[in-house]
Every structure is written in structure tokens, then in C-alpha cells.
Amino acid sequence: MICAIAPASDSRAAGKLVAALLSCDLPRYRDAHKAFVKALVLKGYDQSNVEVITQVPNPDPISWANSIRKFNAIGADVIITYGASATLAALHEANDIPVVFADVYGPVETGIARSMVSSGRNTAGVSSKIPLVTLIKTALELKPMRSLGVIYHSREEGSLVQLKEARRIAVQSGLSLTEVNLTGASGIDAALASLFAARVDCIYVSECTAGCRGFEKIVHRAAELKIPVISQMPGAAHKGALISMEADPAEQGQVAADYAARILAGRKASQLPVATPKRVDLIVNLKMAKMLELHVPFPVLSAATRVLK
Q: Most buried residue among 29, 132, 133, 220 by CB atoms closer than 10 A?
């Protein structure tokens, strides 16, 4: 377990205690949390009046629950969670402590919020959900496809929401879907073997932890067979995705800081709407397109907000 404590002299006497929990140690969560801390300072909460405690436990339900219980015991004023798994653990374990979540793909679909207008409980935050249909339709414009492979994890709520979306889009687009449940990095070879055997035309990697950590390996193996990889994970394009659609982790942290500051000032979490991402990039990787021997049509380039050459 990693526990980083930002020192603050007499912070409990002078101010507030903010406790943050990351679902796992991924760059997207670290980047969001760094942005959160910086934005909180700009809101007037620095080491003189607030202490920020951060925990990144082992990525399993027991460890997440234990971290929240520790936050309860030390009397946190607000709990910040990154990712759906950490957020759901907080909703089950936090006593009366308000929870602010960030980087949750589909807060309503995962049961974290009852609606986007209000969570309906003692929590508020920002969704990372962006339109998967745009990503898949862009891929179809770039390469004719009949089949799509999906890498997901059955125990990660955000990944499951993306899988269900992919199923709906596949039906609408006339695509056949091959699904592989990737539960750990050791299963990447077997997952790819299943997709290659099914002769998929493209691979979509959902936000599952193992898929993120093994993303470059997935891209490399797929590229050997001229199969493009697409994803919504932040940083995917720079790791070799042909097309990615990415919400900005920094914005996630900044919005979470704004909500945390409001709650620390006395606002009720249930009175705040679930925020949606404003900074979203549709990224086309021309270098990967060349490697895959694909021509990128002008409409795709025009629709992209960023192009990697």
C-alpha cells in the first residue's frame, strides 16, 4: 500500500482534512490528482488550512474498503475518489462523509449517481464518459470493418459500461463483436490469440486496468497483423492507438477540486450536478496509420482535434 501524506502543521486545528483514494496506480489517476491538489490551492486551500492524505492501495475491493474505513477513523471532511471502483467502495463504506468522484465512466450506469442533475446521495463529481459511437464511426470511416474485438474486465464497472455501449453500437453499425475478458496482464497473450483467431478487423480496448498497463504490448502485437487499436483511455494515442477519444485527466481533477472547495465551504454534495467533460480530444495517429498501410481520408483529419505525425 502506498500512502502519501502532504504535511501541514496543525492542519486539523486550523483547517480541514481531505482524503483521496485512487482505484489503482495509473497515470490518468495520478495526473488527475496532481491537478486536483493544484486547483485546490487556487481555491484557497493550501497547507496552512488543509491536509491532503492520498492512498493508492492494492486494486481490490477489500483494500479499497479498508482505505475508506481509515478515512472514517481519522475524521476526513471530504473523500476524493478516482475511478468507479474506488467511488463505489466509498459509497458503501463512508459514514456521513461527502464523496467527490472523478474519472468515473457513466456515473448513472454504474449506480454511483441516480441522475446527472443530482446524485441523490452524499456525493458529487465529474463523469469521464465521452461518446464511444464517435470513436467507432471514425474508425469505420478510416477502415471498412465487419468485426470488432473488445477487451474489457468483468469486475471493473467503467469497463463494463463501455462494453455494453460497444454492443449497442455494433448492432446499429452491423458489426460482429468478439469480447475477451482480460482480468490481468498475464492474460494478454491469450486474449489476443482469441481476437486474432476470430479475425477481427479492429480492437477496442476499454478502460480496464490490465488493458491500460499492457496497452503498448496489445498495439505492437496487433500491428504485426495490420489490425488497428482504438481506445478512450487518456494517453492511448501516444501509446500507439490509431484513433483515440480522450477526456482530459487534468480537467477531471480541476472539477473535483471545485466541488471539494464548495463542499468544504458548506455546500451539500447532493445539491451539485454531475459534471461532464468539456476538454475532449479526438486524436488520429498518422504514424500508426502509415505503419498499418491505411489512408486517412480528409473528413477524418478535419474531425480530429489533434493529429500525431
A: 29
